Amino acid sequence: MLKELHEFFPLLDNAVVWGIILVAFFCYCLLIRFCFIESRNERWFESTQYWHQGIRQMLAALPLLGLLGTITGLTSTFSRMSVDGGLALQELITGGIADALFTTQLGLVLVVPGLLLVGLLNHQRREWMIRNEHEILN
C-alpha cells in the first residue's frame, strides 16, 4: 500500500514536507478546537491566551519550512547534476525543481487558512472579553 501511495505522492519521502504537514495539522487541530468546538468560558479564554502566540509562530514557520524544502531540493538537484555528469539532464533539472518548489507551494497554501482561522479566533476572543466585561459591570 505504501508503494502505491508513493507512486501517487512521490514527495512524501521528503522530511520537510512531513514537517510542514505536521505543523499545519497541529495548528489546525488547535484552531478548530478553539473556534468551533469548545464553549466560550474562562477556561477557553485562558487556553486561547496560552496558545495564541505559539499558533501564530508555528503558522509563520510554514512558508519558511517551504523555503527550506526548496533550498534543500535545489541543492539535491544540483548535486545529482554534478554526479550524473549530464545524463538525462533535462529530466533531472525539471523534476528536481518541481519537487523543490512543491514545498514552498505547500507551505504557502497551508498558511493562508490558518491565518484566517487566527483572525476568527481573535474576533471571538475580543467578543468574549467585551461580553465578560459587560457582565461584570452589570
Structural commentary:
With 138 residues, the chain is mostly helical. The protein has one domain (2-137). Helix content is 88%, strand content 0%. The chain is built from 4 helices and no strands. It is rod-shaped.
**Amino-to-carboxy terminus distance:** 62 Å
- Integer average pLDDT: 87
Q: Give the helices and strands as they follow along the chain.
A: HHHH
Annotation, overall tally of beta strands: 0
Radius of gyration: 21 Å
Query: What's the overall geometry?
Result: rod-shaped
Biggest β-sheet, characterized?
A: none
Strand coverage percent: under 5%
Q: What structural category do the secondary elements indicate? A: mainly alpha
Q: What's the structural domain tally?
A: 1
Q: How much helical structure, as a percent, in the residues?
A: over 70%
* Count of helical regions: 4
Uncertain runs with pLDDT below 50, 5 residues or more?
Answer: none
